[in-house]
Structures are given as structure tokens and as C-alpha cells.
Amino acid sequence: MNIWVDADACPSVVKEILFRAADRLQLPLTLVANQLLRVPASPWIRALQVPAGFDVADARIAQEAQAGDLVITADVPLAAECVAKGAHVLDPRGELLDANNIRERLNMRDFMEGLRSSGVETGGPAGYSAADRQRFANRLDALLAKHAPRR
Q: Which of 52, 49, 108, 45 is nearest to 76 (CA)?
């Protein structure tokens, strides 16, 4: 299992949780972004900088992720592509995205985008909270306990 992170907008606390998990379980973790990222010195953790551009990081993750990998992203279209490939997808707030809920999330995203493009103020997401962090950590631990290879 490889872990792929859509790192451009990923909260720092989520990255820290992932760094610890990758080292503890000796799982390859790749943060993909169009900016330079600092990562801890570890044989399991790397940062991959892609060229600037719309969805370049997403395209790279979609290309690289395989069935059984774990993808961390809040980007719903990227999540849908990865779910279709058989990857596990977890958003930074701890929601598992899978074949049972990804279509609904895509429809809601498209609906909200339509509202915004027609001039309706929809507001943004709530700030990232301690409860979000705990939910993410708990869901990550459960997912890794179930799917990560034993070493």
C-alpha cells in the first residue's frame, strides 16, 4: 500500500499524522504538490513537486495511484477517479469516500459549483477543528489496521 497526499491544500496537522503513520508502519508516503514541501528525513516519506497548473497534482496522483493504495484528498473529482481504480480515499476531515457515496459527493459538488457560478454566495467550508483532526486520525488508524500490509 502506498499513501498519496494531495498536499497543496492539506492541513499541516493531517500531514503530521501521516508522517507518524508512514514511519510507524513503514509505508511509502508521497506528498504531491505544485510547490516545494518540507518533509521529515525518512526512507518512507517523499515530496513530489509537479509543475504549476490547474489540477496538475491531481492528475499525477490519479495516474500513480493503484488499487489498494490510500489517497488523501478533499478534491471530489480526484477522489472519484481513485475510487474507480480501487484505491481507498480519505478526506482530511476523516470521511471515507467509496463507491457507496462518491456519486452523491460529485453531485453535491456540481450543484454547489452551479450555484456559485450563477452568483449565489455559498460560503466556504468550516475551519479545520480538533474534532476533524481526531476523526481523521481515528479513521486513518482503522483503515490502515484493516488494509496495510503487516511487517
A: 108
Question: What whole-number distance in Å separates Cα of residue 53 and Cα of residue 113?
Answer: 20
The answer to whether residues 124 and 116 touch, using CB atoms and an 8 Å cutoff, is no
Cα(139)–Cα(56) distance, integer angstroms: 27
What is the per-residue pLDDT across 9-30, written as a single tens digit (0 to 9) for each? 899 999 999 999 999 999 999 9
Measured CA angle at 11 (ends 8, 14), to 5 deg? 115
∠ Cα 59 106 131 (to 5°):
90
State whether the Cα torsion 50-54-58-60 is positive or negative. Answer: negative
Q: What is the value of pTM for the model shown?
A: 0.89
Percent of the chain with pLDDT over 70: 97
Residue pair 23/42 in contact by the 8 Å Cβ criterion:
yes
Q: What is the pLDDT of residues 24-82, one digit of tens each?
A: 999 999 999 999 999 999 999 999 999 999 899 999 999 999 999 999 999 999 999 99
**CA atoms of 5 and 118, how far apart (whole Å):** 32
